[in-house]
């Protein structure tokens, strides 16, 4: 233990701490320099309550088209990264596919943020195709789909340079929350352990550097692990 104490008390550990801090910052910047696109299914439900018992007795039409089970779905699309996604980055447009025994009747783009965001679309069979457009960081828009048939399974997809796939924002939020809690308790635990084990001596600078090294390593690992985990969502 005394030998370790002598080594960690050397002044050159200060240089090591600076290098480790720079490495941690570089890793953090690399993680920030990634394009990220997500979606959130806000709701997908019947216009009429099916358990009321009289819907089968109604004659329902939408824009002069007779329907049996009128439903509406809303999907939010968001660039939740720090980099813009340009129209030329798209190899394949954003496709919102509705899986099931159904037919799409109408679609509307809503909740644009910013208001001057230009979003155009087309309806192809059971899919909504969003034409490539510039999506700056935090740009958001909603897609409201009116359809007839069974309750749809909504499956968004796209092919964008630098984006592995469009991710479920609800899962991203939950994963971020879990990893934040894990990091917090991990840092507290490591600090307490190191403080209890090493910081009892007067010459404890080296151990403080070691503690910073371990904490930076944990934060860097968490940042990388978060992206790896989200890639599998």
Secondary-structure blueprint:
Blueprint: H1 2-8, H2 12-32, E1 37-46, E2 60-62, E3 65-67, E4 70-79, E5 90-99, E6 102-113, E7 121-124, E8 127-130, E9 140-149, E10 153-160, E11 167-168, H3 169-197, H4 205-231
Parallel strand pairs: 1-11
Antiparallel strand pairs: 1-4, 2-3, 4-9, 5-8, 5-10, 6-9, 7-8
Helix pairs in contact: 2-4, 3-4
- CATH T-level topology of the largest domain: Immunoglobulin-like
Biggest β-sheet: strands ordered side by side in the sheet: 6-9-4-1-11
Rg calc = 26 Å
Taken as a percent bin, the fraction of beta residues is 25-35%
Rounded average pLDDT: 77
Element pattern in H and E:
HHEEEEEEEEEEEHH
Judging by the overall fold, what is the CATH architecture of the largest domain?
Sandwich
Low-confidence stretches: none
Q: What is the CATH class name of the largest domain?
A: Mainly Beta
Largest sheet: 5 strands, mixed
> Globular, elongated, flat, extended or rod-shaped: what is the shape?
elongated
Number of helices: 4
Provide the structure class.
alpha+beta
Number of domains as seen in the coordinates: 2
Name the helicity range: 25-40%
The rounded distance between the terminal residues' Cα atoms is 44 Å
Keywords: Membrane, Transmembrane, Transmembrane helix
